[in-house]
User: What shape does this take?
Amino acid sequence: MYPVEELVQKMISGNRRALGKLITLIENDPSSSAVIVPKIHNLTGNAYIIGITGPPGSGKSSIVDKLIFNYRNEGKKVGVVTIDPTSPFTGGALLGDRIRMQRHYTDEKVFIRSMSTRGSLGGLSEATANVIKLFDAFGKDVIIIETVGTGQIEVDIIKVADTVVLVSVPGMGDDVQTIKAGIMEIGDIFSVNKAETDGVEKCISEIRMMLELSEKNEVWIPPIIKTYGNKENGADDLYKAINNHYTYLIESGIYGKKRVFRGKNELLNIIQNLFMKNLYSFVSEDELEELAEKIANREKDPYMVIEELMPKLRKLYEVF
Amino acid sequence: MPEKKLRILIAKPGLDGHDRGAKVVARALRDAGMEVIYTGLRQTPESIVETALQEDVDAIGLSILSGAHNYLFQKIIDLLKKEDAEDILVFGGGIIPEEDITYLKSLGVKKIFRPGTSTEKIITDVKEMIHKI
Assistant: This one.
């Protein structure tokens, strides 16, 4: 296997295989990020990051396919990450989102990577943020992230994307669905897909009502855009709306703030991982297992256990 | 924790439009804990190899029912060489006559699964050929 340094050099000079391999490294071993990220961080920050999220079967992949087409027409280089669920039973996954993007398979300015959630619950996989960095360093102008099919609370996409597109389809439930907290709050743009089907106007008016009720006094009012995943230019209006949102982010200064927010998240993540990694050098897996049993059979409560662990946890603080 | 997960590309090259077999194998490998990427129908050798690079797979499984297997396997193996990616293993299945199998193996195809092979056998053999390297 090639050393990481060599892979990074090859990737920066445009080698697609090296990029593919670096993504695998980060996916399989999160600690490899500590070697890779410092070598590429100063090459990143140039790509525009778009998140596409919404329920399973709402047509996210077809919309991504259309958007790739729009950006390629503009001469932009595009990276795509599509995420599908890992089976909680076998750890396996069937990654089929790229089937909808077949016409771009041999376009060398388009790089599509399928990932599985591998236990992550927020709609992305743990490696996503660093895979975005790799794409960015590779020279992609636009990076599109397609989340797993989401339900109500998989909102991690706001931590990585500049613009979040929430895809809905007509007939997904009554209007109470649109006023619940969670995923409906994160859209910068709402796409009502399969807009040729019945109920599209009702769906639009329900989303509009939800937006009018929200008390956020922001200048940006999320537009509601009809899209047609099955038509040639079915996402042209969405593409324009994304461009408008980009202009808004730049002019309002929010673009820069989002990047700071992202940097903070990244830091917190690394700190959390550091703690977890070091925790195991003071408390063994077996010991944890033993304590967990006592909690399970009601011999002890979890806070009692923490008290007992305190001397060891204090040592953990000394490490830092 | 570092964890190596097997990634397999299941691809349908050429013009035959029947992918039941490809889907059954994809599902079986998934249930064996692998990450399986499926390309969809009617792929060219170029698009399959490009996908294999982007997805950084350990192996490519080709399902071919059209009779064009000798040409398609050869082309894919040549393209992998060209991309310096010979370490990606190639196996296949479908309607492939016994007498062609020796030839395909001489090209570097690791395994051909003929009709009637159990999914258990496919899983075991795929794992084995990847772990051998």
Summary: Residues 35 and 71 of chain B are 28 Å apart (CA to CA). Chain B has one domain: 7-127.
